[in-house]
Amino acid sequence: MASITMRNLVKKYGGVTVIPDLNLRIEDEEFIVLVGPSGCGKSTLLRVLAGLEAIDGGELLIGDTRVNDVPAARRDIAMVFQDYALYPHMTVRQNMSFALEMRGMTPAETAPRVEDAARLLDIHPYLDRRPKALSGGQRQRVAMGRAIVRDPKVFLFDEPLSNLDAKLRGQVRAEIKTLSRKLKTTMVFVTHDQVEAMTMADRIVVMKSGQIQQVGTPEEVYDNPVNVFVASFIGAPSMNFLPARIEGDRLALADGGETLPLALMAEAAPAAGEVLLGIRPEHFQIVPEGQGLSAVIDLVEPLGSDTLIHCALAGQRVIARVSPDIRPVAGQRISLTSIAGKAHLFDPDSQTRIGQTEGQAT
């Protein structure tokens, strides 16, 4: 197994720099998820790790070995792609053993590896089928099995769940996480889906425009986002943001004259000034009239396990997630406040979270 170290990594396409100066350390046996919007550089970074893209600057180490100029075939890395990339004319068994045969291994050597991987992934009954006779989830397991039989130092996953329906995506997501614990191999997983990132990762790497915004456990990134981008990207629905200003021991919203006590904030607030108040939908509470921020309900979305309330509040549109036992209706006026210690303040100019402790930002 192996760690991965990236030092001042640079990747360019012609005159365009897509990864300007990236530093990241991935520990041995760690499950890392690279997450961010389309075009943020996460898949490019994965291809750089795999050796499918050349590095234009910096260093890449797998274990203690510098691999900047090492071709993909010699990096001992296995990659699982979004489109499965299975050979349609081959059986599952042949697809899984093909790479080993290309390395010169005999059928007697490849057979035990294929059998073991098939049992691990619960696809043993399908070994003699061709891909067209498999479901999407089964094809994805075959693609993972083809990677597993190689016994690589590092597994790379490039949005492998994107082609699956919602139910199957959740099932395979859990299987990949379980697989990582059984194999005890370093894994790097790319996705734009923050739910996948939160549920699978040991640590999340949030990226934007080729740069790392924050690295941390799912809990750290969710509870202590370093800036507005991370706060809005991680969490569904997204964090609500309200312009405000500090007035003594209270926070006054920029429109409507509504106020909240600063004691509700997660971090210490500055003495004065303009700020951006951030509250996640699930951290809103409905309180008696006059004890919170006055809001008017525009839309109600019952989800069964909870209910989303879309409200007009101080000239802004916000979403609150409440218990399904609460039966709000459109047009109703309610009073909202934040759970103590869950509201955040951001600098409106730099977009960074105010009062974050050293080491929380990348």
From TrEMBL:
In Pfam terms, one family for this protein is ABC_tran
Specify the domain of life of the species encoding this protein: Bacteria
Q: Which InterPro entries match?
A: AAA+_ATPase, ABC_transporter-like_ATP-bd, ABC_transporter-like_CS, ABC_transpr_MalK-like, ABC_transpr_MalK/UgpC-like, Mo/tungstate-bd_C_term_dom, NA-bd_OB-fold, OB_MalK-like
Q: What GO molecular function terms would the record report?
A: ABC-type transporter activity; ATP binding; ATP hydrolysis activity
Q: Which UniProt keywords apply?
A: ATP-binding, Nucleotide-binding, Transport
Q: Which GO terms describe its cellular component?
A: ATP-binding cassette (ABC) transporter complex, substrate-binding subunit-containing
- Location of the ABC transporter domain: 4-234
Could you tell me the Gene Ontology terms of the biological process aspect for this record?
carbohydrate transport
Keyword check for Kinase, yes or no: no
SUPFAM superfamilies, alphabetically? Answer: MOP-like, P-loop containing nucleoside triphosphate hydrolases
Q: Which Gene3D superfamilies match?
A: 2.40.50.100, Nucleic acid-binding proteins, P-loop containing nucleotide triphosphate hydrolases
NCBIfam families named among the record's database cross-references: PRK11650.1
Q: Into which family does the record put it?
A: Belongs to the ABC transporter superfamily.
PANTHER family given in the database record: BLL2173 PROTEIN, MALTODEXTRIN IMPORT ATP-BINDING PROTEIN MSMX
Its name, as the record gives it, is sn-glycerol-3-phosphate ABC transporter ATP-binding protein UgpC
Q: Which gene encodes it?
A: ugpC
